[in-house]
Write a structure and sequence with these properties.
With about 325 residues, this protein is an alpha/beta fold. It is built from 9 helices and 16 strands. Helix 5 links the parallel strand 6 and strand 7.
Length: about 325
């Protein structure tokens, strides 16, 4: 392992147990993996191949909760290079400006309207945290509805972009922020070395009657995709390995592993919906202090004929 750029995870990052097995392994500089890395990152920024020397892409499966995860993961040094140089924020911002369609923003608006309606609150009274705000598109949409919006982000370039757009950036590890009514952590947990620790931290920043929305890529078919191992498969195709993307999607969740994770973080699932992209909303229960905090689940309003090509359409439900 390249210890200057990588950290080894010897236990499941979802449940913490060490009952794991290796299901795939390749050196980062071996074909066809290296060809994929070059072709993917070349349009986005600059690749430093020295960081990959001696490192291996190792997929493990937890025999207890079912989480599939990368064993060797980027340390803080490589994470910084990955999200500042390999994925250049300026290029990333321009790509989204040129490619995000009206439908992309309509989906955000519909989701946020349902959340606010379910909360039955005046929007200006809702204090929101968008954890891992990225390009701040979701944060800006809910801000447009009148909510008091804050964000966190590890990329300096994206953080600056969010601030320029009017999103208040906070550091939960260094600040004594007040609690939030709504926390959004969408397409983030799959990137984190310690997803359980992050959810436990967010739990402390959630008001007793607050809601946390969780979204992760759907890894339900990943074992079949790994048997084919087609690194050239398009992102939305049935063969796509997007949910185990090297260096970035270091945690690949299925339903069981995600529920195990949120339970361990102090939440309890109240309802179950269709599982496209796992759009879950969790709600604290102020009446049961001795039990795990409760979770209200976002359910889908309708099925799409081809759910791989469309964002999930969600309807929030109360307990």
């Amino acid at each position: 392992m390249n210890t200057s750029c990588f950290i080894m995870r010897n236990a499941c990052p979802g449940c913490g147990l060490k009952n794991i097995k290796t299901i795939y392994s390749s050196g980062y500089l071996e074909k066809p993996l290296f060809d994929f890395i070059k072709s993917y990152y070349a349009p986005h920024g600059t690749i430093d191949t020295d960081c990959l020397k001696g490192a291996s892409y190792i997929l493990c499966e937890c025999n207890d909760c079912g989480l599939i995860f990368q064993k060797e993961v980027p340390n803080d040094f490589l994470m910084s290079k990955l999200y500042e140089e390999w994925i250049n924020p300026k290029i990333n911002i321009e790509n989204h400006k040129n490619n995000d369609t009206l439908g992309h923003f309509i989906d955000y608006a519909h989701e946020i309207m349902r959340i606010i309606k379910m909360m039955n609150r005046i929007p200006s009274s809702i204090r929101v945290l968008d954890y891992g705000t990225g390009l701040a598109k979701w944060a800006l949409m809910i801000k447009a509805f009148g909510c008091d919006v804050y964000g966190t982000e590890i990329s300096y370039g994206k953080k600056r972009h969010a601030q320029e757009c009017g999103i208040k950036i906070v550091d939960l590890n260094d600040s004594k922020e007040s609690q939030f009514d709504l926390i959004n952590i969408d397409q983030v947990l799959e990137h984190l070395r310690e997803p359980l620790k992050t959810l436990q931290l967010l739990n402390t920043y959630l008001k007793p009657d607050g809601i946390i929305k969780v979204g992760v890529p759907n890894g339900v078919n990943i074992k079949a995709q790994l048997r084919i191992m087609d690194w050239e498969a398009p992102k939305q195709s049935k063969r796509s390995l997007h949910t185990v993307h090297p260096l970035e999607h270091i945690n690949c969740f299925n339903r069981a592993s995600l529920i195990t994770l949120v339970n361990k973080a102090g939440f309890k699932l109240l309802n179950v919906s269709s599982f496209n992209n796992f759009p879950l909303v969790f709600r604290k229960n102020p009446f049961e202090e001795r039990h795990p905090k409760h979770i209200a689940l976002i359910a889908r309003e309708e099925w799409y004929s081809n759910f791989r090509q469309y964002p999930t359409n969600l309807l929030l439900k109360r307990q």
